[in-house]
Amino acid sequence: MARTRTKRSRKLGLPPGSLVHLGERKTATPGISLIEFDAGGLIEHRFESIEASRNFQPRHKTVWLNVHGLHDPEVLAEIGSRFGLHPLVLEDVLNTDQRPKVEEYGDYLYLVARMLTMNAEGSEVLSEQVSIVLGANFVLSFQERPTGTFDALRERLRQDKRHIRAEGADYIAYAMLDVMVDHYFALMENLGERIDAMEDMLLDRPSRELLHRLHELKRVTLHLRRAIWPLREAVHQLQHASSELLRPATQIYLRDVYDHTVHLLESLDTHRDLLAGMLDIYLSSVSNRLNQELRALTVITTLFLPAGLIAGTFGMNFHNMPLLDDAQGFFIALALMVGVALAMAALFWRRNWLG
Known about the structure:
Elements: E1 5-6, E2 23-24, E3 31-38, E4 41-47, E5 62-68, H1 73-83, H2 87-94, E6 101-104, E7 109-118, E8 125-134, E9 138-143, H3 151-159, H4 169-204, H5 208-239, H6 248-314, H7 329-350
Parallel strand pairs: 5-9
Antiparallel strand pairs: 1-2, 3-4, 3-5, 6-7, 7-8, 8-9
């Protein structure tokens, strides 16, 4: 299927806050789901269109609205109007190449993170922007496509494990961050296993295919670093934010997420160093194999040099030469060539120049 991507050039000359989708269209139609909950219960809603949601009136304290599919600016404009979002926030939601960040807008916080997953073949990292808006009693999440990333969190809400419904909107925002960071750990484990397997192959049989896989893994580490490094700074900012939207109890959980991002970066640096070292090993192995081949060719050439010398000597145009008129002269010269070659081969073998 052809990918539909809106280029940044479409925004040339437009005023700030213009709602233009930038990025790849990853779903056919936007989907809107809503969960309203509190300690007393939970109700789920699914809206087929933005018009179907206009008569909605919440009956519970906290609302979590999730949108997947960001190519329809009208949907974003309607949601922004309902929740009083700044046009620049809506513009950033539609611009799907944002780096992870946190911005405060008084009555709400705006957070951008990146969700990374591996494709089915395990050869490419799929990157998706996830935007989160945290208000006093609502959480808005915007995804590029329906990935099922937060299904486990929805199930926890349904079952009310550890009384999650009573925690409020800020805890839901934290839990979403925690889920994304857990996915980073899964990616990191997959990366570590692939590096370990490749390290064993590298010394045995270095090949162009192995070099290609090395470069693929280096691209994976690049994607991870571009997602995790700014996310760590964003979580640190949330952890020390003075906003009343984040309760002290939730900031303790954010500290745990921050520790996880630090751990991820340390592991990522280790993997990057291993990959750089493996690339050096690959180049050394290829160079060593080339040296061995050149040495074998040099030995063969050296063994035949005396034969060429002897043949050249007997091929000189002189009338009087030893063995020239001897009936056994040819066989004596041939034996001399073979004997000298065998003697040199034995000498090379004793000095371990043939291995």
